[in-house]
From TrEMBL:
It comes from Isoptericola chiayiensis. Gene3D superfamilies: Nucleoside phosphorylase domain. The purine nucleoside phosphorylases catalyze the phosphorolytic breakdown of the N-glycosidic bond in the beta-(deoxy)ribonucleoside molecules, with the formation of the corresponding free purine bases and pentose-1-phosphate. Cleaves guanosine, inosine, 2'-deoxyguanosine and 2'-deoxyinosine. CDD domains: PNP-EcPNPII_like (cd09009). Pathway: Purine metabolism; purine nucleoside salvage. Homotrimer. This is Purine nucleoside phosphorylase. Keywords: Glycosyltransferase, Transferase. Residues 40-281 form the Nucleoside phosphorylase domain. Belongs to the PNP/MTAP phosphorylase family.
């Protein structure tokens, strides 16, 4: 039975402060999980879902759509459960990890507030760090499907922002150099690159991929950048990791399909899930 209060503000109402909804969501998570606060948030994209069980002990699960401001996911392959996980550290301390299932994509038409709501909720629960993952297209032949890549920067090609009004946020270092170094203590061979987000849901044309490459992109996809901007606005450190699930249009000799993305993610899942779990425990 949902414990969502009847007075929860409507995220779609332009007169509503989206941070009020995030606080209501955080209160709901605390009440239903029995965990008063969290330290690190994970947003798991295509191929990354298996990491949750490897991070630590799952102490509670909440249907994501029952949390204020969230809706049922509309994309095949994306989880619909938010989990609270306890990580026991070698020094005897513990960390609480919030795994947010049911990411909202811009192309779903639910508005940019819904896209940013997950990371804003994580910040409201107390998270100071968020790990954003995704499945994406690669622009380099050397990065075959199954290759994880650390994000060092991004190009937002969605023509929108999660920030409203005169809200100015420095994005010189969107993705934390410190956290990338932590990741490399787990796998020193991890490459890094620039991620370009297109609005979707159609895949990019070969010409668009060439344009993104000329602009400095190494990876193309349909998520992450708006969440990263919102997270930085909330003061969180961001680690971004992409899984190359396919070569981008014009790079790949084959037509692109969502089934290909899911298959590549499934094939890489055991290895990248273990990698991500070890990175999270090291943060």
């Amino acid at each position: 039975m949902s414990t969502t209060p009847a007075t929860t503000p409507d995220l779609d109402d332009p007169g509503t402060d989206p941070f009020d909804v995030a606080r209501a969501a955080a209160d709901h998570i605390a009440e239903t999980t029995g965990v008063p606060g969290h330290d690190i948030a994970l947003v798991l994209g295509s191929g990354w879902g298996g990491a949750a069980e490897l991070v630590g002990e799952v102490v509670a699960e909440v249907p994501t759509h029952e949390i204020p401001g969230f809706a049922r996911p509309s994309v095949v392959g994306h989880a619909a459960t938010t989990r609270s996980i306890r990580v026991d550290r070698a020094d005897g301390s513990t960390r609480q990890v919030l795994v947010i299932g049911g990411r909202t994509h811009l192309y779903e038409g639910r508005g940019v507030r819904r896209v940013a709501h997950g990371v804003r909720t994580a910040a409201a629960t107390g998270c100071s760090t968020v790990v954003l993952t995704n499945g994406c297209g690669g622009l380099h032949m050397a990065w075959r499907p199954g290759q994880p890549v650390l994000l060092k920067d991004h190009i937002n090609l969605t023509a929108t922002s999660p920030l409203e009004g005169a809200t100015f946020v420095d994005l010189t270092e969107v993705y934390s150099a410190r956290l990338r170094e932590v990741a490399r203590t787990i796998d020193a061979e991890l490459p890094e690159g620039v991620y370009a987000q297109f609005p979707g849901p159609h895949y990019e044309t070969p010409a668009e991929v060439r344009m993104a490459g000329l602009m400095g992109a190494d990876l193309v996809g349909m998520s992450t950048t708006l969440e990263a901007i919102a997270a930085r606005h909330c003061g969180m450190d961001v680690l971004g990791i992409s899984l190359v699930t396919n070569l981008a249009a014009g790079i790949s000799p084959q037509p692109l399909s969502h089934e290909e993305v899911l298959e590549a993610g499934a094939a890489a899942a055991p290895r990248i899930s273990d990698l991500l779990a070890r990175i999270v425990r090291a943060i």
